[in-house]
Amino acid sequence: MKGVQFLLDERGNKSAVLIDLKKNRELWEDLYDRAVARSREREPRESLDSVKTRLSAKR
């Protein structure tokens, strides 16, 4: 993939990745979105139905 380079450790294993953000903006956005979602995994959840009910009540 153009604009993506892997950094190797002393044993030749991939240990990091460099992403050219100009060439791969969508890839970066996907990675960032996933990181944000993962950081919020333990936050309280609300069902779609309860959100719709709450929003309808505000009208």
Calculate the mean pLDDT score and round it.
93
Broad shape: elongated
Unreliable spans are none
Structural class designation? alpha+beta
Note down, in words, how this protein is organized.
By secondary structure, this protein is of the alpha+beta class. It has a domain at 1-41. Helices cover 42% and strands 19% of the residues. The chain has 2 helices and 2 strands, in the order ββαα. It has helices at 25-39, 48-57; strands at 4-8, 14-19. It has a two-stranded antiparallel sheet. β1 (4-8) and β2 (14-19) form a beta hairpin. The protein is elongated, with a radius of gyration of 19 Å. The model has no long low-confidence stretch (mean pLDDT 93).
Brief account:
With 59 residues, the protein is of the alpha+beta class. It has helices at residues 25-39, 48-57, and strands spanning 4-8, 14-19. It is elongated.
Layout of helices and strands, plus pairs?
Blueprint: E1 4-8, E2 14-19, H1 25-39, H2 48-57
Antiparallel strand pairs: 1-2
Q: What keyword list fits this structure?
A:
alpha+beta; elongated; two-stranded antiparallel ribbon; 59 residues; single chain
